[in-house]
Specification:
The structure is a homodimer. Chain A is built from 13 helices and no strands. By secondary structure, the first copy, chain A, is mainly alpha-helical. The longest helix of chain A has 25 residues. The radius of gyration of chain A is 21 Å and the shape is globular. Chain A binds a DNA duplex through helix 4.
DNA sequence: GTCTATAACGTGATAGAC
DNA sequence: GTCTATCACGTTATAGAC
């Protein structure tokens, strides 16, 4: 525990080794393998190999496969829910501006890590008790700026009188489904990487337009 | 191989034991366990227990876990794709009638077996080589009545000039996503069984309306 | 901290009695 | 056809040298 360590922490600028430290290498490898194969399908040997280290080191740093998994899952969940929550709780944007931000931010996020939604949905199905508590989904909507705006807009007739959950289902469904059904959808139309990418880019603009058409009163 | 057996077959009315035969009991149990836990997470012991039989019998009837899985997966895939394919290849319905049939048929189907979509998507991610060939997704759209109708309708301006894949993504996304994200969605709004069910029923009518709003030119 | 070797355990599959 | 008992193997986890 040297002076340098503290200095780095205070400056909020961890010493450069942090990106290449063994611990970080293992976490990075674990993310890849767990996302691809799920908890049950992943082997600690795969993770060790992916990280370029020995199997024993994995247990040295994280004690068990499950503990390592919990860490990866928590981070993935945070990445997936966090931006969503912050958008929905922002009182300074309108409903449709929120949709616009969501579409752009999420499609970019999921282009980086396309396996995240299916990973989360799968694992949530397989161990619900563990994850439902973790992600606190109630806080996501209940009492949010979005909820208030939605109720108000229904009252004024600005948007149609439909349950809020339909709005969420449609928005998330259109946003996330392509990343869940990728192999099916891509092979249905034999898209190469380029056209798949351009379809995703188009959806950034189209989804907000579609949501307006579905829910706005005119 | 008795006379009765043939008689039953000819009458297309298999003798009553077929529902309760050991083989069928195992398949039924395997469906439940594989759908819930996936291939990697399911244990043959779980399946045997669920079926109320001994582990050895499972191998006696199906030789291996993988062979049993292949049978279950093929049937699930067939159930999931078959109705979709038949709707999309029917030349006697309009585009929007197809959507209507899809919404009603699929929501009913998935209310019966809600785990199917996530099961298929998960396993397709984990062993793509095996499943892509099986489901022949190209035949689903390419050369279908739907494809021809869609192209024609874009030409006449009846529907907007958008790529067909967006239509499919939105329809399937809105239809299937609620069954993929069930635990998240339900806990977000604390829905009980009754209100969850009524939301699904509402969507049978709403999804066709939304699709029209999104894609029809007016 | 990192490795090799090995223990401890869980799981798929089979042998063999009935 | 169905069972109990057991094998064979793969995987997680640990001991112990360096």
């Amino acid at each position: 525990m040297t002076c340098y360590y503290f200095a780095a922490e205070k400056m909020n600028k961890p010493h450069k080794d942090i990106d290449t430290s063994t611990e970080e290498k293992i976490k990075k490898a674990a993310r890849i393998v767990f996302h691809r194969k799920g908890f049950a399908g992943a082997r600690t040997r795969d993770i060790a190999e992916e990280a370029g280290i020995n199997l024993a080191l994995l247990n040295y740093y994280f004690r068990s496969k499950e503990k390592l998994f919990d860490i990866i899952m928590l981070e993935s969940l945070k990445g997936f829910m966090q931006s969503m929550t912050s958008v929905f709780h922002n009182p300074d944007t309108t409903i449709f501006e929120k949709v616009d931000v969501m579409a752009n931010r999420y499609i970019d996020l999921l282009k980086e890590e396309p396996e995240i939604p299916l990973f989360i949905m799968s694992e949530m199905r397989h161990h619900p008790e563990k994850l439902i508590a973790e992600m606190k989904p109630r806080q996501f909507l209940m009492g949010s700026a979005f909820e208030q705006q939605f109720k108000a807009a229904v009252k004024t007739g600005e948007i149609k009188n439909v349950k809020m959950i339909h709005f969420i289902m449609n928005l998330l469904g259109m946003l996330v489904f392509p990343f869940i059904a990728t192999p099916m959808l891509r092979s249905m139309t034999e898209m190469n990487d380029e056209s798949w990418n351009s379809v995703l880019e188009e959806r950034k603009k189209l989804i907000p337009q579609w949501i307006k058409l579905m829910f706005e009163n005119h």
